[in-house]
Amino acid sequence: MYKVVLHRNGAKYYQQAEKKLQGRINTAIDTIFGNPRYHVHIRKLEGGLKDMYRYRLGGLRVLYEIHEEMKTIRIKAIDVRGSIYK
């Protein structure tokens, strides 16, 4: 079983989001927690972010990385699609 850790950048976006959006993000995190590599909304990234995965949540993206040795999923960022990859 993995442990999910929210990085400060992801936590900042989450805390500023509306309650309804926080609920959607919670559902996404539960899905990631259940199976962090395979889901219809999950894709492994390429290029400079090749060690990361993304979860597509409408116009938002949740970027995270998996640390197998520590059994940890670190959610690095939550942001809109256009600016999260910069």
Q: What is the gist of this entry?
A:
The protein is α+β, with helices and mostly antiparallel strands and 86 residues long. 34% of the residues lie in helices and 35% in strands.
Summarize the helices and strands and which ones pair or pack.
Blueprint: E1 3-6, H1 8-16, H2 19-34, E2 42-44, E3 52-57, E4 60-67, E5 72-80, H3 81-84
Parallel strand pairs: 1-5
Antiparallel strand pairs: 2-3, 3-4, 4-5
Task: Describe this protein with a few key phrases.
86 residues, alpha+beta, globular
The count of DSSP E runs of length 2 or more, i.e. the number of strands, is 5
Q: Quick one: biggest sheet? A: 5 strands, mixed
The average pLDDT is 94
Class based on secondary structure composition and strand pairing: alpha+beta
Question: How would you characterize the overall build of this protein?
Answer:
By secondary structure, the protein is of the alpha+beta class. It has a domain at 51-86. It contains 3 helices and 5 strands. It has helices spanning 8-16, 19-34, 81-84, and strands at residues 3-6, 42-44, 52-57, 60-67, 72-80. A 5-stranded mixed β-sheet has the order 1-5-4-3-2. The termini are far apart. The model has no long low-confidence stretch (mean pLDDT 94).
